[in-house]
Amino acid sequence: MLEARALVRLYKDLLEERTSWQQRVHATLFHQGIPVVPKLGTADGQQRLDAAELSAAGRRAVQAGLRQIERLTQEMASLRRELARLSSRQPGCRALRRAHYGIGGLLSVAVWAELGDCRRFPSSDDAVRHTGLDITIYDSDGKRARGHIARQGPPVLRWALYEAALYASRPASPDYAYYCGVRDRIDGQRALLSVARKLARRCYHTLRDLGEDALAPAA
Fold this sequence. Notes:
The chain is mostly helical. It has nine helices and two strands; from the N terminus they run H-H-H-H-H-H-E-E-H-H-H.
């Protein structure tokens, strides 16, 4: 589990670094007056970059950024395949994939590794609190007001649950009606966080019900 956790965190670090380089390339294009190129890695994106009227320094900066993006993409693809293999062979990860819509190979390993042994949590409320997705309460002079999410738990776990919750916006999702209800009543961001909390509770119960099998090594 510790090894899987380290690999998932490495994947997330690579993802954040790639996003940073993408933002840097877009910033260079913006400062040189080039319209947004939405998909830098596609053939269409490459054609638009080749045709862009960039200065010599600007083009060099863009090309350096694209090389870094390609390098990181290859590293992530290799790591993602390795995590997908682990997910298909580890009982806890397999149970998460089968039971919960939106949780696939990568996300199942992330949730399993970051939640750890769920038997240490007395209830699903404690599991949600561990994720940092619970809502903080500001209490002063008898007045209580809801705040933001606590963000006290593992960042990778919050990311994985939020990514899985994004699938709730699809009509095929079993949480689609719930998502739409919260979205229409409040907003889309709150709806996604609500679904993420629901997923945290469900994953807790799935892994806890497996007992020792949830922690078994991959076959």
